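README, section 4: Worked example with a bound small molecule

Sections 1 through 3 covered apo chains. Here we extend the same pipeline to holo records, where the ligand is supplied as SMILES alongside the sequence. The molecule in this example is NAP. Nothing else about the input changes; the structure line simply encodes the ligand pose together with the chain.
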Amino acid sequence: MNAKSNGHQTAIVTGASSGIGLGVTRALLERGYHVVGTSRTISKSKEVKASGDLVLVDGDISKKDAAITVADAAIRHFGRIDLLVNCAGIYITKPFTDYTPEDFEMMISTNVAGYFFITQQVVAQMRKEKSGHIVSISTVLVDQPLAGAHISLPVISKSTIPAFSRALAMEYVADRIRFNTISPGVVDTPMHANDDHESLKKLHPIPRLVQISEIVDALLYLQSAPMVNGENIRIDGGAHAGAKW
Ligand SMILES: NC(=O)c1ccc[n+]([C@@H]2O[C@H](COP(=O)([O-])OP(=O)(O)OC[C@H]3O[C@@H](n4cnc5c(N)ncnc54)[C@H](OP(=O)(O)O)[C@@H]3O)[C@@H](O)[C@H]2O)c1
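The generated complex, written as C-alpha coordinates:
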Protein backbone atom coordinates (compact mmCIF):
# COMPACT_ATOMS: atom_id res chain seq x y z
CA MET A 1 0.00 0.00 0.00
CA ASN A 2 1.13 3.61 -0.56
CA ALA A 3 -0.08 7.21 -0.07
CA LYS A 4 -2.39 7.16 -3.12
CA SER A 5 -3.95 3.82 -2.23
CA ASN A 6 -4.58 5.03 1.35
CA GLY A 7 -5.05 1.44 2.49
CA HIS A 8 -7.55 0.54 -0.25
CA GLN A 9 -7.06 -2.23 -2.78
CA THR A 10 -7.26 -1.21 -6.45
CA ALA A 11 -9.07 -3.21 -9.12
CA ILE A 12 -9.37 -2.82 -12.88
CA VAL A 13 -12.61 -4.19 -14.33
CA THR A 14 -13.00 -4.49 -18.11
CA GLY A 15 -16.51 -4.56 -19.53
CA ALA A 16 -17.58 -2.57 -16.46
CA SER A 17 -20.49 -0.78 -18.16
CA SER A 18 -22.83 -3.78 -18.29
CA GLY A 19 -23.77 -7.20 -16.99
CA ILE A 20 -21.13 -9.14 -15.05
CA GLY A 21 -18.52 -6.34 -15.17
CA LEU A 22 -21.04 -3.83 -13.82
CA GLY A 23 -22.04 -6.19 -11.00
CA VAL A 24 -18.39 -6.81 -10.13
CA THR A 25 -17.64 -3.07 -10.15
CA ARG A 26 -20.51 -2.31 -7.77
CA ALA A 27 -19.55 -5.16 -5.42
CA LEU A 28 -15.91 -4.08 -5.26
CA LEU A 29 -16.85 -0.44 -4.59
CA GLU A 30 -19.17 -1.58 -1.78
CA ARG A 31 -16.21 -3.44 -0.26
CA GLY A 32 -13.93 -0.39 -0.27
CA TYR A 33 -11.91 -1.02 -3.41
CA HIS A 34 -10.69 1.71 -5.69
CA VAL A 35 -11.85 0.73 -9.18
CA VAL A 36 -10.91 1.65 -12.73
CA GLY A 37 -13.82 0.59 -14.91
CA THR A 38 -13.43 0.44 -18.67
CA SER A 39 -15.45 -0.28 -21.79
CA ARG A 40 -15.88 1.42 -25.16
CA THR A 41 -18.74 3.61 -23.89
CA ILE A 42 -18.52 3.58 -20.10
CA SER A 43 -18.33 7.37 -19.70
CA LYS A 44 -21.83 7.59 -21.26
CA SER A 45 -23.29 4.86 -19.05
CA LYS A 46 -26.31 5.72 -16.89
CA GLU A 47 -25.44 2.80 -14.59
CA VAL A 48 -22.07 4.05 -13.30
CA LYS A 49 -20.78 7.49 -12.45
CA ALA A 50 -17.16 8.45 -11.84
CA SER A 51 -16.28 9.31 -8.23
CA GLY A 52 -13.26 9.52 -5.96
CA ASP A 53 -13.22 5.73 -5.80
CA LEU A 54 -14.20 5.00 -9.42
CA VAL A 55 -12.31 6.14 -12.51
CA LEU A 56 -13.97 5.51 -15.87
CA VAL A 57 -11.89 5.03 -19.03
CA ASP A 58 -13.40 4.67 -22.50
CA GLY A 59 -11.55 2.44 -24.94
CA ASP A 60 -11.54 -0.65 -27.12
CA ILE A 61 -9.78 -3.16 -24.88
CA SER A 62 -8.60 -5.17 -27.89
CA LYS A 63 -6.11 -2.37 -28.62
CA LYS A 64 -2.79 -2.24 -26.81
CA ASP A 65 -2.97 1.57 -26.52
CA ALA A 66 -6.28 1.31 -24.64
CA ALA A 67 -4.80 -1.27 -22.28
CA ILE A 68 -1.86 1.05 -21.54
CA THR A 69 -4.24 3.97 -20.87
CA VAL A 70 -6.34 1.88 -18.45
CA ALA A 71 -3.36 0.56 -16.47
CA ASP A 72 -1.79 4.03 -16.37
CA ALA A 73 -5.05 5.49 -15.01
CA ALA A 74 -5.02 2.97 -12.16
CA ILE A 75 -1.45 3.81 -11.20
CA ARG A 76 -1.89 7.57 -11.65
CA HIS A 77 -5.08 7.75 -9.54
CA PHE A 78 -4.56 4.98 -7.00
CA GLY A 79 -0.85 4.10 -7.08
CA ARG A 80 -1.14 0.32 -7.47
CA ILE A 81 -3.10 -2.58 -9.02
CA ASP A 82 -4.20 -5.51 -6.84
CA LEU A 83 -6.88 -7.13 -8.99
CA LEU A 84 -7.77 -7.31 -12.69
CA VAL A 85 -11.16 -8.74 -13.66
CA ASN A 86 -11.35 -9.45 -17.40
CA CYS A 87 -15.08 -9.27 -18.19
CA ALA A 88 -15.21 -7.50 -21.56
CA GLY A 89 -16.45 -9.87 -24.23
CA ILE A 90 -18.84 -10.38 -27.11
CA TYR A 91 -20.85 -13.36 -28.37
CA ILE A 92 -21.59 -13.94 -32.07
CA THR A 93 -23.50 -17.12 -32.82
CA LYS A 94 -23.79 -18.53 -36.38
CA PRO A 95 -23.34 -21.86 -38.10
CA PHE A 96 -19.58 -22.48 -38.39
CA THR A 97 -19.53 -22.11 -42.18
CA ASP A 98 -21.35 -18.74 -42.07
CA TYR A 99 -18.79 -16.87 -39.96
CA THR A 100 -17.17 -14.05 -41.94
CA PRO A 101 -13.59 -12.79 -41.64
CA GLU A 102 -15.08 -9.72 -39.88
CA ASP A 103 -16.83 -11.95 -37.30
CA PHE A 104 -13.57 -13.82 -36.73
CA GLU A 105 -11.55 -10.61 -36.35
CA MET A 106 -14.14 -9.07 -33.97
CA MET A 107 -14.43 -12.12 -31.69
CA ILE A 108 -10.73 -12.87 -31.51
CA SER A 109 -9.73 -9.25 -31.02
CA THR A 110 -12.30 -8.58 -28.28
CA ASN A 111 -12.20 -11.92 -26.48
CA VAL A 112 -8.49 -12.79 -26.86
CA ALA A 113 -6.53 -9.58 -27.54
CA GLY A 114 -8.88 -7.87 -25.05
CA TYR A 115 -7.49 -10.18 -22.37
CA PHE A 116 -3.91 -10.31 -23.65
CA PHE A 117 -2.89 -6.65 -23.72
CA ILE A 118 -4.45 -5.49 -20.44
CA THR A 119 -3.10 -8.56 -18.66
CA GLN A 120 0.39 -7.71 -19.98
CA GLN A 121 0.17 -4.18 -18.58
CA VAL A 122 -1.19 -5.32 -15.24
CA VAL A 123 1.34 -8.12 -14.79
CA ALA A 124 4.19 -5.64 -15.35
CA GLN A 125 2.86 -3.53 -12.45
CA MET A 126 2.04 -6.50 -10.21
CA ARG A 127 5.58 -7.83 -10.63
CA LYS A 128 6.83 -4.60 -9.04
CA GLU A 129 4.35 -5.06 -6.19
CA LYS A 130 5.18 -8.78 -5.87
CA SER A 131 1.48 -9.58 -5.51
CA GLY A 132 -1.76 -9.52 -7.46
CA HIS A 133 -4.68 -11.52 -8.82
CA ILE A 134 -6.16 -11.75 -12.31
CA VAL A 135 -9.60 -13.31 -12.80
CA SER A 136 -10.98 -13.80 -16.30
CA ILE A 137 -14.42 -14.85 -17.52
CA SER A 138 -14.58 -17.80 -19.92
CA THR A 139 -17.70 -19.94 -20.55
CA VAL A 140 -18.73 -23.46 -19.72
CA LEU A 141 -19.50 -24.00 -23.42
CA VAL A 142 -15.75 -24.65 -23.72
CA ASP A 143 -16.19 -27.82 -21.61
CA GLN A 144 -19.70 -28.79 -22.65
CA PRO A 145 -20.66 -27.89 -26.25
CA LEU A 146 -24.33 -28.40 -27.09
CA ALA A 147 -25.71 -30.59 -29.85
CA GLY A 148 -26.87 -28.35 -32.70
CA ALA A 149 -25.73 -25.08 -31.09
CA HIS A 150 -23.78 -22.60 -33.21
CA ILE A 151 -20.98 -21.77 -30.82
CA SER A 152 -17.69 -22.61 -32.57
CA LEU A 153 -16.30 -19.06 -32.63
CA PRO A 154 -17.24 -18.26 -29.01
CA VAL A 155 -15.59 -21.54 -28.04
CA ILE A 156 -12.44 -20.82 -30.09
CA SER A 157 -12.06 -17.43 -28.40
CA LYS A 158 -13.04 -18.41 -24.85
CA SER A 159 -11.17 -21.74 -24.70
CA THR A 160 -7.93 -19.77 -24.63
CA ILE A 161 -8.74 -18.22 -21.26
CA PRO A 162 -8.47 -21.16 -18.83
CA ALA A 163 -5.37 -22.47 -20.63
CA PHE A 164 -3.69 -19.07 -20.80
CA SER A 165 -4.54 -18.40 -17.15
CA ARG A 166 -3.00 -21.69 -16.04
CA ALA A 167 0.14 -20.98 -18.08
CA LEU A 168 0.49 -17.50 -16.58
CA ALA A 169 -0.25 -18.83 -13.09
CA MET A 170 2.87 -20.97 -13.44
CA GLU A 171 4.97 -18.32 -15.21
CA TYR A 172 4.39 -15.76 -12.45
CA VAL A 173 4.05 -17.91 -9.37
CA ALA A 174 7.41 -16.64 -8.04
CA ASP A 175 6.06 -13.08 -8.29
CA ARG A 176 3.04 -14.11 -6.19
CA ILE A 177 0.57 -13.19 -8.94
CA ARG A 178 -2.44 -15.54 -9.11
CA PHE A 179 -4.56 -16.25 -12.21
CA ASN A 180 -8.00 -17.83 -12.02
CA THR A 181 -10.93 -18.35 -14.39
CA ILE A 182 -14.69 -18.24 -13.84
CA SER A 183 -16.71 -20.19 -16.43
CA PRO A 184 -20.42 -19.44 -16.27
CA GLY A 185 -23.35 -21.11 -17.93
CA VAL A 186 -25.99 -18.67 -19.19
CA VAL A 187 -26.03 -15.55 -17.01
CA ASP A 188 -29.00 -13.20 -16.84
CA THR A 189 -27.33 -10.13 -18.39
CA PRO A 190 -28.05 -7.76 -21.29
CA MET A 191 -26.05 -10.15 -23.50
CA HIS A 192 -29.12 -12.43 -23.48
CA ALA A 193 -31.82 -9.76 -23.16
CA ASN A 194 -33.45 -10.71 -26.47
CA ASP A 195 -33.08 -14.48 -26.13
CA ASP A 196 -35.72 -16.96 -24.95
CA HIS A 197 -34.93 -17.34 -21.23
CA GLU A 198 -37.25 -20.33 -20.83
CA SER A 199 -35.21 -22.28 -23.42
CA LEU A 200 -31.89 -21.09 -22.01
CA LYS A 201 -32.82 -22.28 -18.50
CA LYS A 202 -33.14 -25.82 -19.82
CA LEU A 203 -29.43 -25.84 -20.70
CA HIS A 204 -28.64 -26.10 -16.98
CA PRO A 205 -29.39 -29.27 -14.99
CA ILE A 206 -30.47 -26.85 -12.23
CA PRO A 207 -33.04 -25.22 -14.50
CA ARG A 208 -32.60 -21.50 -14.05
CA LEU A 209 -30.26 -18.80 -15.33
CA VAL A 210 -27.13 -17.90 -13.38
CA GLN A 211 -27.42 -14.57 -11.53
CA ILE A 212 -24.72 -11.90 -11.73
CA SER A 213 -24.47 -12.02 -7.92
CA GLU A 214 -23.34 -15.67 -8.20
CA ILE A 215 -20.41 -14.65 -10.41
CA VAL A 216 -19.58 -11.89 -7.92
CA ASP A 217 -19.65 -14.44 -5.07
CA ALA A 218 -17.12 -16.62 -6.92
CA LEU A 219 -14.86 -13.65 -7.52
CA LEU A 220 -14.98 -12.63 -3.85
CA TYR A 221 -14.21 -16.21 -2.84
CA LEU A 222 -11.19 -16.28 -5.17
CA GLN A 223 -10.00 -12.97 -3.74
CA SER A 224 -10.16 -14.46 -0.24
CA ALA A 225 -8.38 -17.71 -1.13
CA PRO A 226 -4.64 -17.14 -1.52
CA MET A 227 -3.84 -20.81 -2.20
CA VAL A 228 -6.29 -21.04 -5.13
CA ASN A 229 -4.28 -20.48 -8.31
CA GLY A 230 -4.80 -21.69 -11.89
CA GLU A 231 -8.35 -22.74 -10.97
CA ASN A 232 -11.43 -22.66 -13.20
CA ILE A 233 -14.70 -22.33 -11.28
CA ARG A 234 -17.77 -23.40 -13.27
CA ILE A 235 -21.07 -21.76 -12.30
CA ASP A 236 -23.56 -23.54 -14.50
CA GLY A 237 -25.98 -25.60 -12.39
CA GLY A 238 -23.86 -28.66 -13.20
CA ALA A 239 -23.91 -28.34 -17.02
CA HIS A 240 -20.20 -29.21 -17.28
CA ALA A 241 -20.77 -32.40 -15.27
CA GLY A 242 -23.26 -33.91 -17.67
CA ALA A 243 -26.49 -33.54 -19.58
CA LYS A 244 -29.95 -33.33 -18.05
CA TRP A 245 -31.90 -36.60 -18.41
N1 LIG B 1 -24.03 -13.62 -20.14
C1 LIG B 1 -23.66 -14.88 -20.26
O1 LIG B 1 -24.51 -15.79 -20.33
C2 LIG B 1 -22.22 -15.27 -20.29
C3 LIG B 1 -21.89 -16.62 -20.21
C4 LIG B 1 -20.57 -17.01 -20.24
C5 LIG B 1 -19.58 -16.05 -20.35
N2 LIG B 1 -19.91 -14.73 -20.45
C6 LIG B 1 -18.84 -13.76 -20.58
O2 LIG B 1 -18.90 -12.84 -19.53
C7 LIG B 1 -18.39 -11.59 -19.96
C8 LIG B 1 -19.41 -10.51 -19.63
O3 LIG B 1 -20.61 -10.80 -20.32
P1 LIG B 1 -21.99 -10.07 -20.00
O4 LIG B 1 -23.05 -11.07 -20.14
O5 LIG B 1 -21.84 -9.28 -18.77
O6 LIG B 1 -22.08 -9.13 -21.30
P2 LIG B 1 -22.65 -7.67 -21.53
O7 LIG B 1 -23.70 -7.32 -20.55
O8 LIG B 1 -22.96 -7.62 -22.99
O9 LIG B 1 -21.37 -6.76 -21.25
C9 LIG B 1 -20.24 -6.84 -22.08
C10 LIG B 1 -19.28 -5.75 -21.66
O10 LIG B 1 -18.11 -5.81 -22.49
C11 LIG B 1 -17.85 -4.49 -23.01
N3 LIG B 1 -17.15 -4.61 -24.28
C12 LIG B 1 -17.53 -5.31 -25.38
N4 LIG B 1 -16.61 -5.18 -26.36
C13 LIG B 1 -15.63 -4.40 -25.86
C14 LIG B 1 -14.41 -3.88 -26.39
N5 LIG B 1 -13.99 -4.16 -27.64
N6 LIG B 1 -13.65 -3.10 -25.60
C15 LIG B 1 -14.04 -2.80 -24.34
N7 LIG B 1 -15.18 -3.25 -23.78
C16 LIG B 1 -15.96 -4.03 -24.54
C17 LIG B 1 -19.24 -3.84 -23.10
O11 LIG B 1 -19.23 -2.43 -23.06
P3 LIG B 1 -19.18 -1.45 -24.35
O12 LIG B 1 -20.25 -1.89 -25.27
O13 LIG B 1 -19.36 -0.09 -23.76
O14 LIG B 1 -17.81 -1.61 -24.93
C18 LIG B 1 -19.86 -4.36 -21.80
O15 LIG B 1 -19.42 -3.56 -20.72
C19 LIG B 1 -18.10 -11.72 -21.46
O16 LIG B 1 -16.74 -11.98 -21.64
C20 LIG B 1 -18.93 -12.92 -21.85
O17 LIG B 1 -18.38 -13.61 -22.95
C21 LIG B 1 -21.21 -14.30 -20.42
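What to look for in the output: DSSP finds seven helices and seven strands in the chain. The pocket of NAP is lined by residues 14-15, 17-21, 39-42, 60-62, 87-91, 110, 114, 137, 139, 184, 186-187, 189-192 (CB under 6 Å).

Section 5 describes how to batch many such records.
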